[in-house]
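Hi again,

Forgot to attach this to my earlier email, sorry! This is the prediction with magnesium ion bound. I've pasted everything inline since the attachment limit keeps bouncing my files.
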Amino acid sequence: MAIELANIRFHYSKRPNHRVLNIPSWSLSSADQAFVHGPSGGGKSTLLGLLSGLICPVEGQVTVLGERLDTMNSRQRDQFRAASIGYVFQQFNLMPYLNATDNLLLATRFLKRKNTRALNNEIKDLFSALNITEKEWSVPTRDLSIGQQQRVAIARALINKPKLLIADEPTSSLDKANRDAFMELLMPMVAEHQMTLLFVSHDLSLSSYFSRVESLDDFNHLQESK
Ligand SMILES: Nc1ncnc2c1ncn2[C@@H]1O[C@H](COP(=O)(O)OP(=O)(O)OP(=O)(O)O)[C@@H](O)[C@H]1O
Ligand SMILES: [Mg+2]
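Structure tokens for the complex follow:
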């Protein structure tokens, strides 16, 4: 299993009476490319935060790639996330003043890789697979087009060869043509690298790209937790 959740309860400490997650049980197998949908404010980003160790459950067990995140300290979770999880954010979250290459190098810093030549070759291979041309490598990413930034964001999520790729509404600010272009780049990369994919969005029209489609409300039982 890539992901196993058991008896999860979560609320933000600022709002103790506002339960966000109550998940008795949920799992994702390594071969899955899953699409989880739900309305705005429904807890999708919170769920991804738990799975990537950005936040900790109030109760319950979070097992990702066989490791218990809920028993790790925050440094161990940071290390785990850097080594094992690729994350594509809604607004891409690239460092705007850094160029594409430096954005990828920053993502590899945690892993303390020694062989810089091999790393630079891997970055070039990814850029070439994602059609990021050489003249775009050294431009601050804020000066790239949205489509080019998307491709750098995918490259950054893949550079550490994560087993699990998490995507939080990466297409929500895109028009239909850019959205389809994004999906048609992402899905072959996921297949080629044999990654587990968990993609959340409110946009149900994306569901045709996925082998597994679920509503968060079907496994997040909020009404029973009050
Ligand atoms: N840092 C925070 N502190 C307190 N409450 C928060 C925080 N982040 C989110 N929430 C609340 O938790 C609930 C779930 O939010 P979350 O961001 O997980 O929803 P979402 O499904 O990702 O929504 P969207 O589709 O708009 O991104 C909401 O009620 C939100 O107001
Ligand atoms: Mg969200």
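Strands lie at 3-11, 19-28, 33-37, 59-64, 67-68, 85-88, 164-168, 196-201, 212-215. Residues 12, 14-15, 20, 38, 40-46, 202 surround adenosine-5'-triphosphate (ligand 1) (CB under 6 Å).

That should be everything now.

G.
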